[in-house]
């Protein structure tokens, strides 16, 4: 039995910023796995992914780093192009290749207290897969992929048709300030959190970029500060890093506010360099106590 099982595709990413262009692996699965692997190994973690042949070397590298990975075959890996302008909170995306969705058969043997579903595109996790996993453990979802409709190679944000069905069996939901406008047609994070709670979500996490984040759970709001980075180098994977820190601390028994502050501080460490979080746990804990 794992404490956390992250299910999601490892991607190939082309990251374009005003300063440079970087090619690397990515996706929720990638950032979550490396993030948790760089924290003290006080919880049991497993990554379940599905990739094309072009990403098998990355899976091997993750295993060499000590990450437990179960990998299913797909004709292709997801291939994203992420472009950031001067405002690092905004990006445009293209999808240059898609991976096969996860299936019920692939989920049968999994056992975990929390399943974090790292959706990248709307059809990654059919509703029946989410329902099935919810009978095995708590469901945590990063909403981003459910809102991505691919037309040609371009990505458009749209609300998703199975929202009510999926949210009714979702315990923890993370979304950002742009996604909340799509999912709830509102720019008021408190209003959005209440709407999502009415649909059955137990813990709503809304990240607000440089303005911090908001958590709603047990009929109470928790305002989490943003910690100022020394330098903003790469924002790709920050939301996934937040989820890694939050779920890690919640698995250890931390409360909502403590988990949120740790997650936010962990995000700041990730912001300061390219690639997944590779920081020091003690530094994150110290930074989380500064505000």
UniProtKB/TrEMBL annotation:
The segment(s) forming the Carbohydrate kinase PfkB domain are 2-271
Question: Which GO molecular function annotation, any one, does this entry have?
Answer: kinase activity
Q: Does the keyword section mention Cell membrane?
A: no
InterPro entries under this entry?
PfkB_dom, Ribokinase-like
| Membrane spanning stretches | none
Query: Record keywords: tRNA processing included?
Result: no
Q: Which domain of life is it from?
A: Bacteria
Q: Which residues form the signal peptide?
A: none
Q: Which UniProt keywords apply?
A: Kinase, Transferase
Q: What is this protein called?
A: Carbohydrate kinase PfkB domain-containing protein
What organism does the record attribute this protein to? Answer: Segatella maculosa OT 289
